[in-house]
Amino acid sequence: MFQDERPRWIITTPLVDEKWSRCLQTLEGHTGWVSSVTFSHDGRRLASGSADQTVQIWDAETGVLQRTLEGHMD
User: What pTM was computed for the model?
Assistant: First the structure.
């Protein structure tokens, strides 16, 4: 789909099954729109921030919710 976007200096690409799924995991838990997502420096955790005024911390490998941080709006 993005063949024209690939830099010219990349000449070898990995073999990928034609029927691969872009969705590796669905993380469910927020009740509002997710506005930000980031990985920890070691790639083991993922944090997602939402309009539901929470930040949720996930295990990046298993998708298990580890902690929910609740905030407030002024």
Answer: 0.66
Report pLDDT digits (tens) over 1-59: 677 787 888 788 777 777 777 777 888 999 999 999 999 999 999 999 999 999 999 99
Q: How many domains does the chain have?
A: 1
Residue 71, domain extent: 45-74
Q: What share of the chain is helix, strand, coil (3-state, %, to 5)?
A: 5, 30, 65
Q: Tell me 65's DSSP state.
A: E
In a domain, 21, yes or no: no
